[in-house]
Amino acid sequence: MINSLHSRNKRSHLVLKLSIFLFLGGCASLPTEPFRVAPVKKELLLKDICRDNNIYWQWDSISQVVTLNLPEGDAKVLVGSHIVLVGDRKIFLDEPIRISKSAVVVPLDFERKVIGDVSIRSKYIEQCVLKKLRSVVLDAGHGGKDSGAIGRSGLYEKRVVLDISKRVKKILERHKINVVMTRDTDDFETLKNRTEIACAAKVDIFVSIHANSSLSRSASGVEVYSLQELDRAARNEDQRKINAKIMYKGLSMEQNSSDLNAIVSDMLYVKKKPESDILAEKVVERISNLTKAKNRGKKESKFFVVRNTLMPAILVEVGFLSNQKEERLLNTSAYRQKIAVGISRGILDYGSSE
Fold this sequence. Notes:
By secondary structure, the protein is an alpha/beta fold. It has 2 domains: about 45-115, 2-Layer Sandwich (Copper Amine Oxidase, Chain A, domain 1), CATH 3.30.457.10; about 135-350, Zn-dependent exopeptidases (Aminopeptidase, 3-Layer(aba) Sandwich). It has 11 helices and 14 strands. The strands form 3 sheets. The protein has a 6-stranded mixed sheet, with helices on both faces. Strands 2-3-4-5-6 form a 5-stranded antiparallel sheet, sandwiched between helices. The longest helix is centred in the last third of the chain and has 34 residues, at about 260-290. The protein starts with a helix and ends with a helix. The relative contact order is 0.12. The model is unreliable at about 20-30, about 125-130 and about 250-255 (pLDDT under 50).
């Protein structure tokens, strides 16, 4: 009995010593703050990826389809699916995309497989574009004291088209295309100045961006104007002669030769008309397909900026401010981005065509 009690006391004493040792050792080694292991990210917010890559995207909460407007076409994926469709191609993600706290969440491989893959392929697009198209003049209509059309809610055309023009500029510059703006602030530029800027800049095409208006409030849709056939008198208009001289200064040719000037002017006109038609058709189709707006088609006109520029030129009417529905759409950043993407894709299509 005594031996048993002695044995228990010995064990208790040993446990107590070990406890004190561990306690003291632990106190000496414990950090002042608990050690935290950073969680490994397995997902990313789609809005962050698209913002960093300057890509317009949207999520239709009814159909649950997420759409990204990529350089070579739309990418679509259904919430809950791990398959992304880009045209006829299928891209398989490691995990399905999902919605968390009203935000679209994508797996880590999304940017590499979808955005990164498209960036690599778009190098080919750039090479094709640069063969035919290196520089563009973007002409945001109106400005300053000239507000242009005004919607029923008070939306000014000059503000809408300047915002769209800036967005187009940003997209085209991603494709290494030089962009000249006739205005990049709320300033007034005369029609004469706009055409002279284009001819002095030695650009390949001229794109003027406007918003429409009509006495008929039901009128809607997008339309693009190219040059109507000019008679001899129109082709000898004073402003065309001034712009021709501006352009000729940059050419390696005999100066002040009326015969040579006439030949070059005719050559420019012969090229301008059919090329303008091609550009207009591609732009109006792209905008209409992307925005789902009514396609009012390619039309012809003798607008001052279209007829007095010597390079292929078009005038884009992006929608009707006199139409309440289209005015509401044009007042949103998302819709203006869609239009900008449409215009840009049409320009890129033109640049890569034979």
